[in-house]
Amino acid sequence: MRKLDYERIISEIQEWINDYCKSANADGIVVGISGGIDSAVTSSLCANAIGKDAVIGLGLPCLSNPKDLSDAKLLASQLGIEFIIFDLSSVYEEIMKITANIIESNNLATANLKARLRMVTGYFTAQSKGNYLIGGTGNRSELAIGYFTKYGDGGVDIEPLGGLYKCEVREIATKLNIPENIINKPPSAGLWEGQTDEGEIGMKYDLLDEIIYRIDYNLDLNDLNRSDIEKVKEMMRSSQHKLKMPPIYKIG
Fold it and tell me: pTM for the full model?
């Protein structure tokens, strides 16, 4: 993996956030804080970049593990940012209720519904508070393989971690003094009981990072397992539509 000067990278990302907010004439940034490492680092970078009074953290439980909300509260308190909780469980359950006789749902569809409810709530909050942007929490490893919900956690205005592999996000979290229990907890979107990101992806982040890094920089892959490489390449190929604006049919 590449060697980064993390202090310099932190400074540059924060300057980039500040410049982008100014260019957008934004009043601040709203971040959904899940209790995980990515949202913790994003929130911290934003607070440092534009000031804690200009950052709003959202707790958006949806039949979620209460520990995640507890960790989110702890992080927001440590940063000194406003933290608003909207429990979306009843909204989710109502949608499931009114669609039950028409649509046979599956785990992925219901999980993505939770993510999309969070997106809607985030943008409603951002607009209600003024001209706020939505701060995304996606890292390079997840964005590359499409490990996010289209128009869910992928529905954001700015991605401060989008150029960082997961292992690099961990390093930055340490530099930013993110609580250790958040850094060390198994990454999970909390979309169903027992769900973990690595379990859903099907490999450890360290291996995923290494493969994507070598693909990004056109480095030798021969010492890695061929099936792992092909799996990552297929995820990258099949998720390209998530990273682009919808195609438009052009007349003439």
Answer: 0.95
Burial 109-143 (b: 16+ CB within 10 A, else e): eebbbbbbbbbebbbebbeeeeebbbbbbbbbbbb
Per-residue model confidence as pLDDT tens digits over 88-115: 999 999 999 999 998 888 888 999 999 9
Dump pLDDT digits (tens) for 55-85: 999 999 999 999 999 999 999 999 999 999 9
Ordered alpha helix ranges (H), the chain: 6-23, 37-50, 66-79, 89-99, 107-129, 140-145, 166-175, 180-184, 197-201, 205-216, 226-238
Which domains are assigned to the chain? Answer: 8-202 (3.40.50.620)
Give buried/exposed letters for 81-92 (b at 16+ CB in 10 A, else e). Answer: bbbeebebeebb
